[in-house]
């Protein structure tokens, strides 16, 4: 089943609490500390472009990459005149014309890479498309979040524009989380207000810090820093999202 298709139409409505502005500040603080004040930055799993647009407004030449045409269509229609290049590509095999001053990825995009070898493949591509010593800044949901926050729990929201039900099942042995999403989206069909139903299944994997370090090492990336993404502080036992900084460190074939 394809994901982020019908969901794309209501994604920004139901995800309005995502702290994109804070994420942008975190990223720009890291980039400016590395004296990266401009240049090309690629956003992997850019979705509807909320973070991409903010980074563009911060002075970076942005490339947004996502495998969902529907999400990119929403992004493109937000700021038609904004100079952002959007590419519909799978991040496991993305292609660029040159290297980047930085690459970023937020909102648990890498948790959707459920095979470790594919994660290494993504990291190798990142390493290939980074300028020398340039950073890769990404986040990842922690094992704690899947085990204690999402595991076997159901969440629901209802708005005028529609509603959704989000059911989770977490396999602790395999560290795999299955999310069943059911949407009811408000539409005007032949002058009648109807709610159309659609369903998606999202599968994610929880990675430990050691697994992420091993993948980075295999790809030739240098592990520099890891933070609690919510407060930009030290990682704790109950940290729900990691923010990790890797750096290009001599490309490996």
TrEMBL record:
Residue ranges constituting the Methyltransferase domain according to the UniProt record: 41-132
Stored Pfam families: Methyltransf_25
Keyword field: Transferase
Alphabetical list of PANTHER family matching this protein: TRANS-ACONITATE 2-METHYLTRANSFERASE-RELATED (PTHR43861)
InterPro entries: Methyltransf_25, SAM-dependent_MTases_sf
SUPFAM superfamilies according to UniProt: S-adenosyl-L-methionine-dependent methyltransferases (SSF53335)
Name of protein: Methyltransferase domain-containing protein
Record GO terms (molecular function): transferase activity
């Amino acid at each position: 089943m394809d994901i982020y298709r019908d969901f794309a139409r209501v994604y920004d409505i139901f995800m309005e609490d995502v702290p994109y502005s804070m994420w942008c500040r975190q990223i720009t603080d890291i980039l400016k500390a590395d004296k990266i004040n401009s240049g090309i930055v690629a956003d992997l799993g850019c979705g509807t472009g909320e973070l991409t647009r903010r980074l563009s407004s911060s002075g970076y030449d942005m490339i947004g990459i996502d495998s969902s045409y529907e999400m990119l269509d929403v992004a493109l229609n937000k700021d038609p005149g904004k100079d952002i290049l959007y590419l519909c590509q799978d991040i496991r095999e993305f292609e660029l014309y040159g290297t980047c001053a930085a690459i970023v990825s937020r909102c648990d995009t890498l948790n959707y890479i459920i095979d470790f070898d594919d994660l290494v493949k993504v990291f190798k591509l990142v390493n290939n498309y980074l300028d020398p010593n340039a950073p890769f800044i990404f986040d990842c949901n922690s094992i704690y979040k899947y085990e204690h926050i999402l595991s076997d729990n159901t969440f629901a929201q209802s708005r005028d524009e529609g509603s959704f039900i989000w059911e989770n099942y977490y396999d602790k042995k395999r560290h795999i989380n299955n999310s069943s999403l059911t949407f009811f989206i408000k539409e005007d069909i032949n002058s009648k207000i109807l709610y159309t139903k659609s369903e998606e299944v999202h599968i994610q994997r929880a990675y430990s810090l050691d697994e992420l370090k091993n993948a980075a090492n295999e790809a030739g990336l240098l592990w520099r820093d890891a933070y609690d993404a919510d407060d930009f502080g030290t990682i704790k036992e109950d940290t729900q999202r990691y923010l990790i900084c890797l750096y290009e460190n001599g490309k490996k074939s």
